[in-house]
Amino acid sequence: MKKTTSIITSAIFILALTAFAGRLLRQADKALEEGDYELAAKLYEEYTEEKPSKPDPYNSLGWTLDVLGRYEEAVEAYTSAIMLDAKNPTYYYNRGTAYLHMDADDQARLDFEQAIRLDSTNAGYYNNLGNIYFNNGNYERARLIFEKAARLDSTKATIYVNLALCAEYLDSTGLALSYYDKALALDPNQALVYNNRGRIYADQGGYDKALADYTRAINLDPDDAMTYYNRGRAHYRSDNLDLAIADYNKALDLDPGLIRAYHMRAVAYTRNKRYSEAIADYEKVLESEPENFEALLSQAWIYLTRGKTRAARGDNAGARQDYEMVVELLPDEKARGLEPEKNPAIEAERLLGDMGKSDKQPEEGVNSQ
Q1: Domain residue extents for the chain
Q2: Which long-range CB contacts under 8 A does 179-187 form with residues at least 24 apart?
Q3: What is residue 104's predicted lDDT score, i.e. its pLDDT?
Q4: What Cα–Cα distance (Å) separates residue 328 from each residue in 84, 118, 334, 348?
Q5: Secretion signal: which residues (predicted)?
Q6: CA nearest 299: which of 332, 327, 333?
Q7: Distance between the two ends of the chain, CA-based, in angstroms?
Q8: pLDDT tens across 236-286, in order?
Q9: Is 178 helix (H, G, I), strand (E, B) or coil?
Q10: Is 63 within 8 Å of 94 (Cβ atoms)?
Q11: What angle, 0 to 180 degrees and rounded to 10, lies between the N-to-C axes of helices 293-312 and 316-329?
Q12: SS (H, E, C) 62-104
């Protein structure tokens, strides 16, 4: 009788544990669905401690940890799932993705290849494998893999974007444009794609098309500084200097560290004869990139140009300051290698010399000795 009672008690305890574990899993799934990843991770961890023999909860735990940026822990969870079921391609794919987030490309590649061996019909597996080769500069191999992904699933815009990027790096801009067109036909709400296609149009001199694409990109993502910068360059190339400056201003509002925007705004200011503002922007460039000789040389030319403008207005003191600044910016050791006509310091020294001679002329009405 005691033995029977003991068996019944054990059965009730096991049923209670099973019910408790079941509630944990349901709560974890609900937290994951609602986007409460911290809670979901905690509950999945508790469940896998209670039920360590089921692979799917480890997979869900790994996915949740990956979202939280806890990549090493995610890898451990996926590995536990794989140890319990080594023939599930999803587990390898998910672990490969976590490795990818850790920049562990070799491990990620091995996992994606294993996922493909287990299921060669999944376009997503090929797409992520292609990303590894692309990130490592093997654009031709990446292109072949992305093409395989596209044959398996022609409805994924991301695959065509990746094909377009490969085509760009392989100098096939016409092909890149066709892939970007396909990507936008599948998903017209991709700011990055409009930005990239606009860049190609601009490089080909199609500024109207480029401006239209950049504007679409900005409408979709108004907080991306690079798109404003790119549109500013298209405006500049179209001789719309004020619009270019306005876009560079917006780019720098969004990202004050975008040094190239200071550089291009300085160029636009120079063409607009706004020399002081151009000089200030070149100062910003040189603060960040003190070895940027192009910026230094451009700044010297602006001082020379402003000095001439001041001299023409009779502001000899201001002109002298500007000429002296040119010489200070480009001493002989920095200007070495420049052809004389490309060295503003030579002209600045000559102009300073002329001003010195003028200073020695006798004043009107005073006899010279």
Answers
A1: 28-119
A2: 182/157, 183/157, 183/158, 184/157, 186/155, 186/156, 186/157, 186/160, 187/157
A3: 96
A4: 72, 68, 10, 10
A5: 1-21
A6: 327
A7: 139
A8: 999 999 999 999 999 999 999 999 999 999 999 999 999 999 999 999 999
A9: helix
A10: yes
A11: 160
A12: HHHHHHCCCHHHHHHHHHHHHHHCCCCHHHHHHHHHHHHHCCC
92: left (phi over 0), alpha (psi -120 to 50) or beta: alpha
Q: Decide if 228 contacts 254 (C-beta within 8 A).
A: yes
Place of tokens 């001789």: 239
- What CATH number matches the domain at 28-119, 1.25.40.10, 3.10.180.10, 3.40.850.10, 2.60.40.1930? 1.25.40.10
**In whole angstroms, how far apart are CA 353 and each of 301, 310, 357, 360, 363?**
18, 17, 6, 11, 19
The pTM score is 0.79
Alpha carbons 132 and 97: distance in angstroms, whole number? 10
Helix 89-101 to helix 123-135 angle (10° resolution) is 30
